[in-house]
Amino acid sequence: MSRIGKAPIVIPSGVDVGVDGRKVEVKGPKGSLDIEVPGAITVRKEGEEVLVERPDDERTNRALHGLTRSLINNMVIGVTEGYSKELQIIGVGYRALPKGDSALELQLGFSHPIAVKAPSGITFDIPEPTRIIISGIDKQLVGQVAADIRSYRKPEPYKGKGVRYLGEHVVRKAGKAAK
Question: Which of 104, 122, 131, 158 is 20 to 30 A off residue 13, Cα-Cα?
Fold first, then answer.
């Protein structure tokens, strides 16, 4: 049995979980999310808990068991607390500027600025020109937007310039050795 999959998901107060056949919908104070349950996995609500079960020990069902439980648990956490990722911009002249209420402009050493529009449900916060905080209720979407922004200028190993996650360690290389 999957240790993650067999653990029940406790529903906190203020959160409503609806199970309708293959669709699971989670509503909370920050918004609502839904998911289509994959494969032969079954989800049922029992009191203040959600249980995820699999019919047999077939390989695909074992793989989807823990995954489905984690996705539903992430939805419950997302609608109560939300998720955020923090990016740090390092480099001379590299900065982020807010553009309107749901977009930002990145200057990362290219000849042109890069415009990034936030997908629905994602907000950008720029406390200082070299820090970007991406937040929302969908964990996957927050991580994907952060990865997309990081991909515009990944941290390079010689000077460490680029966009990195806060606290990310970049292994530095030695430059040319002089004779």
Answer: 122
